[in-house]
Amino acid sequence: MFATYHPGDSLLHRLSAGWKIFLVCVLIVAVSVLVRASWHVLPAIGVTVALYVIGRIPPRAAWDQVRPVLPMLLAILVLQWIVADLDSALRVTGSLLVAVAVAGLVALTTRVSDMLDAVTRAAQPLRHVGVSPDRVALVLVLTIRAIPLLARQLSQVTEARRARGLGMSIRALVVPTVLGALTTADQLGDALAARGVDD
Questions:
Q1: Most buried of 61, 94, 96, 198, CB within 10 angstroms?
Q2: Which residue range is the domain that position 86 belongs to?
Q3: pLDDT band of 1, cuts 50, 70, 90
């Protein structure tokens, strides 16, 4: 999810956060189970586009949801084509594209606070086994925020690689991205510890 909440009064905006999270999980599982051939991706993409239209999301905002992951999807496509076949490669990358897009749609039509409240309520029964619902909600927030941070890191590394003329070097892409992600994780951990999250 690569964008913040996009205000609106569409049907998707009015739908409760809990239902949206549940339905997006169902949709992602359905795509994973039902997409058995490359052409099966087309109806899934069509449904995703229709959902963006229902949510009245501008084309630019919709494009921003998938643009950062396109290099990664291209790499997965090539790898799957090498180790398997083109049909499998298109099926896997298409399913991932749909998953990213529908998850982004939830972020665009749902306030983070509403998502946190929904997850906290759903996780209340976990108190009986010693799990804090607030911690579960915190993990969700960190996950939501980590995705655009990693996407930004990947974009910066890609631009730097091109500026240095490193071409399609996987090492020049992966190593700086991983190191940057680890540095960000360390800084985030220190910030949480300083605020007493580990208490």
A1: 94
A2: 1-110
A3: very low
